[in-house]
Each structure stands twice: as C-alpha cells, then as structure tokens.
UniProtKB/TrEMBL annotation:
This is Glycosyltransferase. Residues 4-147 form the Glycosyltransferase 2-like domain. SUPFAM superfamilies: Nucleotide-diphospho-sugar transferases. It comes from the Bacteria. It comes from Hymenobacter setariae. Coiled coil: none annotated. Gene3D superfamilies: Spore Coat Polysaccharide Biosynthesis Protein SpsA, Chain A (3.90.550.10).
Amino acid sequence: MKVSVIVPVFKVEAHIEACIQSIIDQTYQDIEVIVVDDKSPDASIALAKGVFAKNSYTKFRILENAFNSGVSVSRNNGLAIATGDYVLFVDSDDTIVPTMLAEMAAIATEHDVDIVVCDTFRVRTSEPQKPEVWKASLTGLVDGATAIDAMLRFKETSYIWNNLYRKSLFDNIKFVDNIYYEDMLIKPLLWKKARQLYFYPKPLYNYYERAGSITTRLGDLNKYLGIPDCCQAIEDAFAQDTQASQEMRVNMVLFLYTWIRNLTLTITSANMPYEAVKQLLDKYSSYIKFSNILKIGNGVDKRLPLFLLILKVSPYLYWKRFSTQLLAK
C-alpha cells in the first residue's frame, strides 16, 4: 500500500529540515514525498533538497506552484500528482513520529478503512513544558455517521493532518482556496463520505503551535469572506444526502452556527472600526437563516440563538455590542 505524503512549503526555513527529516526517518518504506513549493521567497526549498541529498533519499518530488497560492491550492496540486493509495498531509513546520506511517498503514490494510485517525502531540513553542496530548473521543473501528456525530458535537478536532486518507475520497472534494480554516471546511465532507474510520489511540503527529499562527492572530480579513459560502456548501451536502438523518442535519447547522458565532465574535472584538468589518459581518448575516435559528433553539448553548438573531437583524448592532468586550455572563 503506497502512501503519498504532501508537504506545502512557504517561508518555513527555520523548521523545514526537521519536518523533512521526520518523513525520511519513517520506518514504512512504500511512500512518496511531494513537496509543494508555494513560491517561497526564502531558502526553504533549498534546505529541503539538502536534507534529501544528505540522506541519499530519492523518493520525492518537488512541485512548484505558478504563483504564491496558499496551502489549499498547494494541497490540491499535490493531490493531482499523487500516486499513493492513501495520502497524508504534513504541515511544513510540524514533524511526525518515525512509526506513524507504518502503524497507520497497517491499520488501514487490516481493517480496510477509508480514514485512520491518530492522536496528536500539541507542542506550544512559547511554553517550555511537556507536550499536551490531544486524544480523540472515539476509539477503534467507527462508521462514518458515528464519526460525524462526534465532530458535530465538538468532540473531535477539525485538523486534517493527523488523518491518513484513502486518496479516492478526494475525487470530488477539493480544498477551498483563499480562506482561513480550510481544514474545518473540508473535513466534514470527507468524514461524511467515508464508509469506515479507525481511531488509533496513540499520538503520532507533532503539532507545533507557534506565535503568529492563524490560531493566535486575526490575519487577513479577506480570507474570512469565503467562509459563509463554504458553510452553505456543507449544509447543502448534508441536506441532499439521503443517508443523513434529520438529527444529523440539525446538528450540522448547530455546529456551523456555533463556529460562525465564535468567528464573528473574534472579528468584532478586535476593536476595528465598523467600516473595516462591515462587509464581513454583512456576508455572515446573509448566510444565517431565521428558520435555522429556530431549529437550534433547543441546543445546549441557550445564548447562541440570541447572538445569531442580533447578527442577522443588525450587523451594526452586533459590532457595537461586541466590539470592545465579549459577553461576560
């Protein structure tokens, strides 16, 4: 069983060598490494080539994007040339445990599953302490509906890099370009398409949380504009799926609307003038439907419908209320 490892690269010269070395050090041999150069202006690609050369490693390809396009395009371009039966995505500032592919490939083969999910080491580079282990809530062989239910209840993370995917899952599913949180916007579709998943209770991926990442800053406001359209696409996919129960569809709306609330609160609490965020809030307001607010009214978070109602009726009032402080109570 061949595994394609796809590594998008852009301005990571401080970390790329460790990343590539961790892939070369895999005990599993039937792999190909696809390094996607997103027009990185630094020495990242040269350093990656140096690691391959130092190890006399030849099972790699370097693909160069036509122009700086972002991680989604880089992943899609890598998928387009991948020849593996399964695919693993590795962020270029992270590393993987030497036995990751051997252990996950063995599980995929033994159980004939579409996705294998492992636990993750979360390493906060700003805090010199023992890595935290992010554990999945599920264990062992699980059907797609059960996995999706756990995700919609926020029991599973939205990251894509600790999942080994059957490549055919991506035949009609692609990463969306020019948005933040691209993992969260594709993972529900992949998990929904999967027949079976296997949750392996062992941390095999090292995720480094660094200052300045999108998890610790607001970033480019334009990259939030496409998120409501992606959310609508996810809604539509579940609504059109005859296998999806009504409860699952409502939980999907609750999942998306909770995320929209949290995202818009992050945007409004950044203390920017209304003119700077008006286009964004208007876009998110247009996405929200009164009928969906009613559907999620009986959820655990009793304040969620109120947040959404204010945003739907008056984006300006929403900004005015939450631009300087979040609800404390």
